[in-house]
Amino acid sequence: MEPQGGISTNLDGSKNLTLGLAGDHGSAGAFVHGYKDSQQFPKPTGPSFGSAGGNITMGSQSANIGVTATHIPHSANQLSASTNLNLVDANRHKVDVNAFTTKTFPKGPAPNFNTHGAGVNYSYNDTVHAGASIAHTPMFKHTQQSVNAGVNLMNTPNSSLSLNAGVSRSQNPFHNSGWQPGGSMVFRKQF
Question: Where in the sequence is the domain holding 50, given as residue range(s)?
Answer without folding.
Answer: 1-61
